Amino acid sequence: xxxxxxxxxxxxxxxxxxxxxLARMLARRPDVTLVLAARRxxxxxxxxxxxxxxxxxASIEVAVLDRDxxxxxxxxxxxxxxxxxxxxxxxxxxxxxxVLAAGAHYVDLADARDFVAAFPGRLSAAAxxxxxxxxxxxxxxxxxxxxxVDALTEGWTRVDRIEAAISPGAKAPRGxxxxxxxxxxxxxxxxxxxxxxxxxxxxxxxxxxxxxxGLGRRWIGLAETPxxxxxxxxxxxxxxxxxxxxxxxxxxxxxxxLLSFARRWGLLRTLEPLAAPLNAGAGLLAPLGSDRGGMTxxxxxxxxxxxxxxxxxxxxxxxxxGPNVPAAPAAAVVGALLDGTLAGPSDAGACVGLLDLAALxxxxxxxxxxxxxxxAAPAATGVFPRALGRGFENLxxxxxxxxxxxADVTLAGRARARGGGGLSALVRRLQGLPxxxxxxxxVSIASLPGGGEAWTRRxxxxxFRSRIAPAADDPFAFEETVGPLTFRxxxxxxxxxxxxxxxxxxxxxxxxxxxxxxxxxxxxFARDGSYRFRVLVAHPWLGVxxxxxxxxxx
Length: 554
What we know:
Number of helices: 14
Strand content: 35-45%
CATH superfamily of the largest domain: Dihydrodipicolinate Reductase, domain 2
Shape: elongated
């Protein structure tokens, strides 16, 4: 490929938290000249060296560029310009207009509600006139949020409620501009659609804990993002459209909530002047948290058959990979512009409906980031029909018969048990679990008021009793209580059955650290027409506490 065949991609804010990660994604393409742009050249040169050492396939240049002096753009001859600099709150569209005037496409990572809302009116005419795209919000919000809702609600007849949330790890890099942007609306009135009507609530208010698959339960509060407008306009929910954000460490999240009252009560006009000390304080406490972050989108409504349904998309990032997520949609959109695959005539607007969820996530391939979709049937009878939703009806008949929850069930057969000695053996004896060996086994499942079930497992006559019930605050989860301990699980269906995936545990109402939890692997499945089960519970300190596997018949 000759140099002349390459298209020039100018990345403004390339040395920032998200810009640097976006640069790594774009540097994989051999058909571009990637121009790293910012106000200071030294960080750009450091990034250039890093990209070249990492095997970049793009041709890479460095350019000093100030967004406030957009006339410098023309000398760079861009095909597309990406604004990853921010912040976008309170900004006009002068830079985007200059990009279009230079004959280039424009893409940004804006998460500012006011900027995204005004974007089409400011730029549509100019974009159509020059035949170029101007795309805003090509980031976690609102691009990923809306793409997730699109995927979850395909074929639905009604959307009732949408709640999306994001929670970075405490050790994630924190740009001062991001902190300042959050403080701009913390404690300020935020327009939101709740209880079927437009309303106003303070930013960072209504703190509550929300389940983040792969991460556990974290605190979130109301955040002002473009999603609040996009979700209401695109899906017309009947009850609510909410977006929340949270800090991993409870003292930081709740501390900011308390601080928000200074603005709510008129003691401070804005919290923005506190950005630097608060950002520094969060850095001091960061070692108490993790480098794991994620987001989740939950939707409730009616499916194609008119039945009540809930669905959830979740993403979680390990080992500090979280800051790559906001950059991925922009990388995907730029790739589509380079390939000429964006459908429809060029226009200006939010990055909503342009690419599907899989395409927006494709730039994250190879990173320690996972995503999944869950479905539930909140009105279903029985723990597992509720937690598995449509997936329950796809299970083998023998598994459905045992767990439909409509009548008491007894299964009998034989099971082989295993386990360690010492303290593990003592735990088994106290719980009524069997000693290693083969035992006659019976499992009785009795329905309880409120949709729960009482399980009695008998191994050679010794009973082991527990209660299993839907999680009160999460239709996608269920809980098993053994004495004072309660374990929360997520049910994951597969072709022949479903697995019990451990999520958290507690002693009475007191949450317990996940690091102290026993490691549980459990499966319920069918083989050769028979009901099968396999359970293994081990602990980092005790080794294998117990395990059993067997075959039962109704």
